[in-house]
Every structure is written in C-alpha cells, then in structure tokens.
Specification:
Elements (H helix, E strand, L loop, with lengths): L1 H19 L2 E12 L6 H11 L9 E7 L1 E5 L5 E4 L14 E5 L3 E10 H11 L2
Parallel strand pairs: 1-2
Antiparallel strand pairs: 1-6, 3-4, 3-5
Helix pairs in contact: 1-2
Length: 127
C-alpha cells in the first residue's frame, strides 16, 4: 500500500514540473528503483493509471529502471552483486556486508509536450 503514497508524490512532482514549464501534457516519467527496494512496478503502474486520470499526466508512460544490488564485504572488501535476496560474500562467506547500491528510489526525469511543440507538429503536417 505504500506504493500509493509514493505514486501520489510522483504525480505531484510531475504536475508541478509541467505547470512550471507550461506543458500541455506529460508524456513520460522515468523512475529509478533499486533491486532491494520493496516497491513493485506493477503496483506503481496501477496507482498511476488510477490517480493520473483527468490530469496532464493521464496517458503518460512510466519507465522503470532497476538498479542492481551491489554489496561490499566488510571482512575481505570484496564487492559483489546479488540478483535475489541478501546473500553472504561469495569470496569469504561473511555476512558482514554493506549495501552500496540497490536501495534507490527516485524520479529521474519527466518528458513533457508544450503548446509550441504541438503547433510545430501540426504545421509540419500541412507542408
């Protein structure tokens, strides 16, 4: 359920950006999510489709980039990547590890359409 509040926050950021830049619509939202985060892409998409209705973001496409989980062994200083759940160091089997990447969650970029772009598209259609 925490995906709803996060998705609402993303919508608010996108709408603020769109308004500031005089957008006629938001076309794409790019999100970066670490493999270790508990956010579920499908849940965010579900809530996005629901709460973006009747806004400048309606119909925009969410793009999810998953950042791999990289850990550092605090015993042997080996860096390694994991693909599922937390695991011990493959070199010395220690469980004393530090997460380097994989817990991220942020809005990377927003693509918008403006009235000027739309006018340029329409005028080129008639040439």
């Amino acid at each position: 359920m925490h995906e709803l509040s996060v998705t609402e926050h993303i919508l608010n950021l996108a709408l603020q950006y769109a308004e500031k830049n005089q957008a006629t619509r938001v076309t794409d939202i790019y999100l970066v999510i670490g493999r270790l985060s508990s956010f579920v892409d499908d849940s965010i998409q579900f809530y996005w489709d629901l709460i973006s209705q009747n806004t400048l973001c309606e119909g925009s496409v969410l793009h999810f980039e998953r950042v791999p989980a990289r850990l550092l062994c605090l015993n042997c200083e080996q860096e390694f990547e994991i693909h599922t759940e937390l695991a011990p160091c493959p070199n010395c089997f220690s469980t004393r590890v530090k997460v380097l990447t994989g817990e991220e969650f942020y809005l990377d970029s927003i693509a918008i359409e403006t009235a000027t772009e739309k006018e340029n598209e329409q005028s080129s259609d008639y040439c």
